[in-house]
Amino acid sequence: MHAPHPYKVLFVGDAAAEFASLQQSVRVAGESFELTHVSEAAVAQDGPSPHVRDWQPEVIAFDSSTQNPLSLARQLRQLSPKSQIVFLLPSDRLERFRSSLPFVPHLAGAWTLNNRSFHELPQLLKEAAQASRERAASAAVFDKINSQLTKGRSPQSEVRRAQLASSERYLAAVLTQSPDGFLAVDADGAIIAWNESAARLFRIGWDHIVGTPLSELFPEEHRGEIDSLVARVLHEGSIATTELSLQGEHAEGPSHGELSVAPVHDETGRITTLSITARDITARKHAEQELRELNETLEARVAQAVAELSESEEALRQAHKMEAIGQLTGGIAHDFNNLLQGIIGSLDIARRRLSQGKTSELDRFLVSATTAANRAAALTHRLLAFARRQPLDPRPVDANQMVAQLEELLRRTLGEIISLEVVRAGGLWTTKCDPHQLESAVLNLAINARDAMPDGGSLTIETSNAYLDSAYAANEHEVRPGPYVCISVSDTGMGMPPEVIAKAFEPFFTTKPIGQGTGLGLSMIYGFARQSEGHAKIYSEPGVGTTVKLYLPRRDGSGEEPQDQAQLGAEHQTHAGETVLVVEDETVVRSLVVEVLSELGYQVIEAHDGPSGLAILQSARQIDLLVTDIGLPGLNGRQVADAGRQLRPEIKVLFMTGYAENAALASGFLEPGMEMITKPFTLESLAARVKQIADR
Fold first, then answer.
1. CATH code, 639
2. How many domains does the chain have?
């Protein structure tokens, strides 16, 4: 009879004392063992091949000092499937370790023993080795018996058996290969089972996860939340879900997870364990954060886009403006050269006649020069009016009377081939505007109509009362609903297409050739209407004609304010000898004003700029009236007047201006005791205005 072969046991670990105890126990028991000891570090460093693949141990035992027994056991078992696995464990880890083994691949049938029960180890190793031998010896017999049993089974039962085995393999594969982490937790909240994805998600090794409280897988700030979640599910028996950070001692970088906790009941309905599903939602959280940041910056990005668009539009407008200025240059140069020629020529002839002693014709040439100069002044007024910077002199105006006074001039201007019809409404309301600007507007409209009818036609000027309601005002820019006096000018000329109507009120726009017009006519009219708080509207159809309507606001009351006298006379003289301070930086203008006021009997003091004028006001000299230009160097006229009134509250002020952006009466520029006269003015107008102020 042959002696039995010794049982081959590979003992893995660093507890040399346990291995020595094993050797002693084997000798005492009289059993035949072939024992080999290898350290955990040696197996991890050199690999398992020399100890397992070549030797093929029947039992692989891990002592209690092994740090990663599960990981090493899985590796060795894959190389030696018939080897039995034995774990020596301390008592505090034994039960949870045993309960987790069924969930660890390839280790479901592993043996466990308390390391304090070392005297039982030889018997356990013997039984494990015998099991390994029986498994190897019975493999062929089992296959034969299984084949015979299979022959005796019905096809249906065999199909069910195959389906069941396939289903078990499929479920095991799903659990192992799922991208989501699955864990099982006992009633105390300790982990007893897990899959590969859970180990990867929480970045913890197999040998450290078993028995670990679930909350310790998470950062410390979330552990209380996890313990509360587990307690709630155990108490209520319902599924609970939460989202939280996975960054902590087990994590390598910021990550976020979604945790779902569900109860698992036994056949009596009692909750025995909890099923945990953990999913990495870091990518989703990052996408949500990017979306939030995108939404938070949306308003700023839209504002930036609008600002860039506005800059582009402004650049385009500037380009159009520069193009228009080029067109303006030709028209203005043409008009001013003609006017200057009339002024210079008339004065030159007057000088020659005077040197020849021929004074009988002087008046005719002086009148021609004055007329040309007035036309030049009107052109500068038009330049300012289209920009709405021309200071107006608003007065109550009877539009019927104004049109009647213009009728003869209009007939001469239009010529014989154009018929003029004037329709004046009865009971026409009074409006308030600058009468000279209104006359200029009507005259400009008549000239435009004449140019649109080169072969003749008819022109109709009509006045009427009108009421613009809210519906009309809502469709127009800056129009107030209410009563207006309407003056319409209609012709039977060529008319305008819609694209020309849209640009007709734009500054410098003209359909005339370069050098034959400034393009300021209709823009001046529009500017005048807007400054007068009114409205202008064009109606036109090509081949039929054009109607331009001026709407000026109704003024309550009737009658006209006193007008300036046409010529200097005794009524302009002063008999009280008032003292007037004239502040003007332009020498020629200052000399003329001083000369006229001196002739009229005023005591005149002159200053050439704002600081010198203020110094005089601060002196003890008697001053009854301040006549000052607005655009002065150093201190402007308004500053001089305000400083002077602090010292002389009763002083009266007359402002002179050729351009004053802030001089519009509606803006509250003028205070009581202040008036304004617009350059260029006649000396008669100046004398009348000074007399009117001085006598108050």
1. 3.40.50.2300
2. 5
